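Record pair follows.
FIRST:
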Amino acid sequence: MSAPGKIHLLLHAHLPFVREPEYDRFLEENWFFEAMSETYLPLVQMLWRLEERGVPGTLNLSISSVLLAMLTDEVLLQKFTRHLHKQLELLEKEKVRLQDDSARLDVVNFYYRRQTSLIDHWEKVCHGKIVPMLKLLEERGKLTLLTCVGTHPFLPAYQSDVDAIRLQLGITVRAFESAFGKRPKGLWLPECGYFDGLDSILAEFGFEYFFLETHGVLLAKPAPKYGVFAPIKTPAGLYCMGREQSSSMEVWSRKTGYPGHPEYREFFKDIATERDPEYLGDYFMAGDTPIETGLKYYRITGSEDKQVYRPWNALRLVEDHARLFVANREVTVTDLLPNMDGNKVSILCPYDAELFGHWWFEGPMFIEKMFERAASSNVVEMASLESTMHESPDGGTHAPIFSSWGEGGFGEVWMNDEVSWAYPLFFRMRAMMNEMKLRIDNSKSAQNQLQKRFYAQMARELVLFQASDWAFMIHNKSAADYAKSRQNGHYKNVCALYAAATAAVVMSRKHPDTSLLASLEKKDNLFPWISELL
């Protein structure tokens, strides 16, 4: 008999598109390498361990279309393999350097064993590819795969241009089909951003369910009988569920969340800031700027007086925290059951995937221990969203409100004075694309195929411009200059492509200049089928 309560652990995996094939090493590509080595690959390892031991339960994983493009890119995957070995080389140097420092040497030896395990799993089990492993884990019942919109745009910011939203959703479906051989049912809205009527657009593309921040559901009209503890049905016939707050605070809260315990590894003190550039070598330097190595020797103890990290103590603690997390969900289920009219209690626990492993180093082990603890519970189970998101117990229809899971709960992170300059650029690009579309549709020129190439690359640059990451980084003053340069760069690319395409037509050149087009097709090469959606 199944448990009366379901824990729906939902991880959202996403990174902005960074791909620089002309460089052997590029600073921002390290974001991808860190996420792979600290989050995605450890999660795959963890799920295989659970599968091999017969521990029941399913993890729900949403992967953005743009991240799928990176996860299947041969250039990035080859660079990642090199990255793993460069880290191992640095660890070997650290073992020699710290041979007389027993406390830090223990940490180095721990990292060394972990690194060799990662490399072995990546090369011998995954064979240098992670997407087939995710597909296999879903077939084994350990994963439910969901998707996220295109390049991760904050959709409420674009509600005045429904066709732009449709292009992003078309990309979403096609990218998922290309990677996993089936259409996606569940959708993570970027930043959980929702506006009234969005469900109707989602329905056009065959999506069946999505997720919102707590107040997006609680303040729906009419208010749902079971709050966020059961799916609601929207006017367009889709199902959605809201985030449960207590489980969120136990992990996310800076003050009281588990990851802030002083026994866990400190995120901010990498040896890149403690070693000479000559020692680190060219690979871990970007000019005069050190690149994080992933080697961190301290735990969260005070602001300046950091004590040495103790891996085994941290792993014992994470087991206690996992037990506490499951126990608290059991209390929630037990308290709610008398008011559920015989229905199960569903608890949606959504988090950024990169929290587990990258930001919170012990996070993947926390999830593994959570599954183990839930396996012995008769109150809760780690459940697939597919088992829940197909009906609404109260039988009614509810219209969710405009909401997001960002700071303030609405749109101020992505729609504010700091980023207001970007939206006029977007609409200028849309105007150029509309003119290109008319030109192609009304022309019988021999250059039409070339014009379609220009048009397709303009579309790639446009959707990359829309990524919510840029506004988030600008608002939080984290790599803000890079974010601005990316948006300005994509805008300039669209303008230059439009100018080159126009010159080719107006001047009727037999050999038009396609150097920029070819360069961008090589660099920003994601979504090779995008022309079929235009």
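SECOND:
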Amino acid sequence: MAAEAILGIIAQKAAELAAKKLIKESSRLSQVKEDLLWIETEMRRIQSYLEDAEAMQPKTKRVSNFIKDMWDLAYDVEDIIDTYFPKMRSSRSRLKGLLGRSNLTTARRFAKDVEGIKKRVDDITKARETFKIDESSRTREADTWDPRRTYPHVDEPNVVVGFDDLIKDLEQKVLDGDLHHRMVSIIGNAGLGKTTLARKVYNSVRQHFGCSAWICVSQQPNYKDLFRDVARQVGMEKEKMEQDVEANLFAFLNGKRYAIVIDDIWHTKAWDALKVGLPANSEDGSRIILTSQITDVGVHAGGVNSVLELQPLDPETNATTNCNASLKFRRVAIHGGDIGHYISLNPETSRVRAMLCFLRETQWNRSVTKNLLSNSKFLRVLRIDDDYIPRTSLLTEICNLRQLTYLKLSSESLASVELPYAISYLKSLLTLDLQKSCCVNLPDIIWNMKQLRHILLPERCSHLPIRPRVNCLNLSHPVEFSLTNLQTLYGLPSNLFKADWLHNLTNLRTLLVYYPTKDIMEVLILDVTPVSQKLETLRLHYFFEKLETNSVNLSRYENLHTDSSSMD
């Protein structure tokens, strides 16, 4: 998650708490209010600094260490707020007991912890001034910051399990002078640690090469920018980056011994576009490390022998190597294995902010699930890939994670995932991704979750029945629609969605509609008034009704990409 999101949330939370009437008006809590306002101000300062620092590429190790220090500081501030004010945001009635003796003691402890944070801020500021961190950063060329981009220089606070032997083997393979294949392709599903593994190997071996570079491709790459990024990192002259950069880069690297990581590449055509600037210098020991979720990409780029497919760890290794990791790390991935055994070794998971679970149905049971989720009350990101998801008990437990901002549920089961009405309790939820589930039953309350920014749904969606059973579009059961902040609606269920609601999506940027009705089509492409002036991508799938194509007018969508609008 970008600095803007995480630090903005912390600052906003502090401001909201300081504005609570009881804190605002009580003289006995004046120090609490002062500390909360200080937190808000300082988090916004750190936010601005990190956004500027993240835009600087490449970074010095000194800058990278300071970025890490400030992230650690911000996370600790978040821990303090979440520890001392777990219930203060919910309602004024819950603030009445704050002035009791025990809560005044809590307030004093809060003030003491904030004093410790203030001292750390002073230390960071003094060190930054002493070592002229800002000046060294500004001497570097700045690129546009991309939140999807990965970097080699800062270790993310992930749990890296079972990688030690694999890292050593890959280091030897990359440095092997007799190796005739210049490519190493690390393949695996999301969350298995491909980027982390590549980062560890790259940072370990790069000093053995004449030049090195790291680029992140993603799904919609700008190849010119990627070539320029490589050229800058390997030290090519700036004037040669303006015209024919790929040819100039090829000539520059030809004969040199280089190491380049191409992270998160999704298509074979992306490799075909990039290889024109990368000479095949295996005779000189040059190496390319590639990461992808797609096996065919690795085979296409380097052949079958180049491919290393990451697999989930065996149950014992996964649980044992993760022992006590939740006390130290913010993100944890659980791959297979007995989740009960994992929890027995990790009884306290309150510091974990992101959890990825790739499990089988037999590895869940209600008591274990409740134990895991109830101990993860500050969880922000949750992804579960498992056939157990349709079970209501699991979804009910998830709806108790009131701090959750991102939820992704993937299930290959043919049974419907029944999203409970309690989903509305997740007041901080920004992204709901159900796209990889076979079928989803949606409660109509989903259309009234104002804070949602991104909704991704599968092709098959139906209405979650209520008692008495009433269709969500029935006039006797009116539905309030207020998703005015929504930016992505991938898989609009036309059978559950009134065409008039589209006019409320004023911030929408991406829209995909399955089986659009004639009413929806008319609003989207025939109305004089656009659904959203910000719309960039529009896709309409499986439209069967006849439409007067000469009446289609997309010109009023000023930001719509010409290659992003389609009717299948």
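COMMENT: Residues 1-131 form one domain.
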